[in-house]
Structure formats: C-alpha cells, structure tokens
C-alpha cells in the first residue's frame, strides 16, 4: 500500500515525489538553498513548478551553484550566454531578476544576517500549519513581498512568496489526506 500524497505531486516524476516527500514544507535554514529556492520560485512565474524542478540541476550549473557573489557580477555577455542555455528558462527578465536578487541578497546579509534570519523572524521560527486548502497569498506573504521589493528583489510578488514560504517550510500546506501533513 502506498502513502497518500498531495494531489499536485506527480507520481510519474520521481523528482517531484522526492521534492514533495523530503523538501516541500520541511523547514529550511540553509542560506544557499533559501537563495536558490527564491530564484527558482521566481523563475516559475507563469509556468508549472514541475517544469522548473526538472531544470533545477541545469540552473545550479548555469548560475554558479547559486553563488550570490558571482551572480551579482554577471554582465550582458553572461546574460546572453544564459539566454542560449536550453537547460534553463530563457527569459531575459527572469535572468536579470536573479542578478538583481543576488545583489539584494548580499545587502540583506549585511542588513538582516541573511534570508534565514530575515524570513524566520516573521513566524518566530515556527512553521505555520494551515487548516484550509488552496491558499495562494496571505497578509504575511503580502508583507514579505512588499519589503523584498523595497530591498531590490525581483519576481517576488505575494503569490510567488507564498509558494516560496511553502517550499522552504515556513508554511505547511500538505493536503488533509496527505501522509506528510502535520497536525
């Protein structure tokens, strides 16, 4: 007998199942992964998460293993190179957003000690467990989105930030019948 998962977890894609079972909704405090997921959630805008997840390793290679110091130095030649990379989503605005986000992230590290400190203070270090389904934004995602935009981050609208909060475990939104749901 197999365990029941959230309906969005495509059982035909092992990457998706692994993501659902071991990452989505699991509290993350790793700076590198927090930065990576922020950019990947932004890259997802207008697309399915599965599309981005399937390209995740390509993104890691193309974006110097998400080294913000390197990404902040990307120039037009690097953007043009990335636009030719079929392994990532070739959208100039999204590529430029990753560069802007790297610069904003480096400043956030100075101002707030990094994404881990910045984000988790909003929930006092404890994930929010929702008891209703199909939430796409909240007052908290609105607040974080607005603040990140002021700090120079791009592709961080409230819907993207809420998905990000789910991805990094600030919020647990597993379906009521999902074996991974927290009570």
From TrEMBL:
Pfam families per UniProt: Adenine_glyco
Q: Which SUPFAM superfamilies match?
A: DNA-glycosylase
Q: Which Gene3D superfamilies match?
A: Hypothetical protein, domain 2 (1.10.340.30)
InterPro entries (UniProt xref): Adenine_glyco, DNA-3mA_glycosylase, DNA_glycosylase
- PANTHER family named in the record: DNA-3-METHYLADENINE GLYCOSYLASE 1 (PTHR30037), DNA-3-METHYLADENINE GLYCOSYLASE I (PTHR30037:SF4)
Name of the featured protein: DNA-3-methyladenine glycosylase I
Q: What is the lineage of its organism?
A: Bacteria, Pseudomonadati, Pseudomonadota, Betaproteobacteria, Burkholderiales
């Amino acid at each position: 007998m197999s365990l029941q998962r959230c309906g969005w977890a495509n059982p035909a894609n092992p990457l998706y199942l692994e993501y659902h079972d071991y990452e989505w909704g699991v509290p993350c405090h790793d700076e590198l992964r927090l930065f990576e997921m922020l950019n990947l959630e932004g890259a997802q805008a207008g697309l399915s998460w599965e599309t981005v997840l399937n390209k995740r390793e390509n993104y890691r290679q193309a974006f110097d293993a998400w080294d913000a110091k390197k990404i902040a130095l990307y120039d037009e030649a690097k953007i043009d190179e990335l636009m030719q990379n079929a392994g990532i989503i070739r959208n100039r605005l999204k590529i430029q957003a990753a560069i802007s986000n790297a610069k904003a992230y480096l400043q956030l590290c100075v101002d707030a000690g990094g994404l881990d400190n910045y984000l988790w203070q909003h929930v006092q270090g404890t994930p929010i467990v929702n008891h209703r389904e199909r939430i796409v934004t909240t007052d908290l995602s609105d607040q974080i989105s607005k603040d990140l935009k002021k700090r120079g981050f791009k592709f961080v609208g409230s819907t993207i930030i809420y998905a990000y909060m789910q991805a990094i475990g600030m919020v647990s939104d597993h379906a009521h019948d999902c074996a991974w749901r927290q009570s």
